[in-house]
Description:
It is a single chain. The chain contains five helices and no strands. By secondary structure, the chain is an all-alpha fold. It has one domain.
Amino acid sequence: MLSKPTTARAPTFRSLLTKFFSTLTIHLPPPPPASPQLNLLKSWTVALSSSPFRPFRHTATVVALSILTGLCDVSKNVWNEHLVAVRQRDAEQKKTTGRNNSKLNGLNQRCQELDERRQGLDEEMKDLFDR
């Protein structure tokens, strides 16, 4: 009885590469709005994508798409946090009519920070996609 070789069960290089770059992008520090690590990754990817060698161009495309996937995941998480913060702020506004509330001020600031971060991520994704 023949069995499949162990290499057939091992993950492919492409799947490991995409998982690595998407995970790396997710764990980068939050961009305020532009992170130096993300800019370095983008410039490296763009330089490889204009290479005369086809394997480099294909690898750069895979890397760029996995970075974009990671940015989309981060953007989704920030969007969900923003929705929760807006709901909390609206509930707090209903509770405190006319009073100066530090909790309401903190929630307003949190909503504004998350909105700025979301816009920064959108710009980063657009910049990577347009290059």
